[in-house]
Design a protein that fits this description.
Hypothetical upf0131 protein ytfp; 5-stranded mixed sheet; alpha+beta; 5 helices
Length: 185
């Protein structure tokens, strides 16, 4: 195992404002996954809509908006988010300006599959809506309803269709150092 200078450089340049719209709205979950994160405020992502592909995603949709929350995140949080979101295989990133600095959010590479989430996953997001005090859960319930109506797959696309392991090889050790697991190389 070794520290990776490319990873360090990536993190130093990376935006530190994260827009959450799915299960990362759940403050309990977010605190475990991203212990250094700080909720800044709720807001909307304009010209996108919330969709379910087994898990939450957004897709471009002129005139629509997605409710979510902005978090300030640190280096360790970014590594953890990238791993959780399966970046860059399952999700990629989009970047956006915010009044708090450059921001980012995740968007699935596969923009075609539609599938309702599990009840547990949906309830995690619903709890996050309430914890963040989003103004209404109606957009969330509308997305769930649409995913049931428009369902076109039974598989959750987590890279399994192509035999892809989406989890990054990077992790944070007990001393807070960024480590690359190169045991399989």
């Amino acid at each position: 195992m070794k520290a990776n200078s490319k990873l360090i450089s990536y993190l130093q340049r990376h935006p530190k404002i994260y827009f959450a719209y799915g299960s990362n709205l759940n403050l309990t979950q977010m605190k475990v996954r991203c212990p250094n994160s700080k909720l800044i405020k709720i807001c909307t992502l304009e010209d996108y809509k919330l969709v379910f592909r087994g898990v939450a995603d957004v897709e471009y949709s002129k005139g629509d908006k997605v409710w979510g929350a902005l978090f300030r995140v640190g280096y360790k949080d970014i590594v953890n988010l990238d791993a959780y979101e399966g970046y860059p295989t399952l999700y990629t990133k989009e970047y956006m300006p915010t009044k708090y600095g450059d921001g980012f959010f995740y968007i699935m590479n596969n923009q075609h599959d539609v599938k309702p989430p599990s009840e547990y996953y949906y309830d995690t997001i619903k709890k996050g809506y309430k914890q963040c005090k989003l103004p209404s859960i109606k957009p969330l319930t509308a997305s769930l309803k649409a995913s049931k109506k428009e369902r076109n797959t039974d598989e959750v696309d987590c890279g399994s269709k192509w035999g892809i392991n989406v989890r990054k090889k990077y992790f944070i050790n007990q001393d807070g150092q960024y480590i690359m697991d190169d045991t399989n190389e």
